[in-house]
Design a protein that fits this description.
Layout: E1 3-7, E2 10-12, E3 18-25, E4 33-39, E5 45-51, E6 58-60, E7 68-73, E8 78-83, E9 92-100, E10 103-106, E11 110-114
């Protein structure tokens, strides 16, 4: 059974940091590109960041560049999102997504709330 389990969300003050993790199982993690996607209250899905299967290539949406860092550990079947200098507009449910030609897996999401 394919599973993606996100963790690490929570309530943080503006300017704070959180590290999200997504643990994968049930598929060959190391050959999948991984993404983080978020959904703010009342809004649609927004792609945040992606990382290639070997971790060599990364990309970010403009609003998080310089603040968020995506990484992965293929030995642990886990992808991470380090989020620094958080802003209230980063408040959302964050999902991890595994993608490989025709295959598309999603986790259940973890809530991140940035508020004073």
């Amino acid at each position: 059974e394919v599973q993606l389990v996100e963790s690490g969300g929570g309530l943080v003050q503006p300017g704070g940091s959180l590290r999200l993790s997504c643990a994968a199982s049930g598929f060959t993690f190391s050959i999948y590109a991984m993404s983080w996607v978020r959904q703010a209250p009342g809004k649609g899905l927004e792609w945040v960041s992606a990382i290639g299967s070997d971790g060599a290539s990364t990309s970010y949406v403009g609003s998080v560049k310089g603040r968020f860092t995506i990484s992965r550990d293929n030995a642990k079947n886990t992808v991470y999102l380090q989020m620094n200098s958080l802003k209230p507009e980063d408040t959302a449910v964050y999902y991890c997504n595994a993608i490989k030609s025709g295959y598309d897996y999603w986790g259940q999401g973890t809530q991140v709330t940035v508020s004073s």
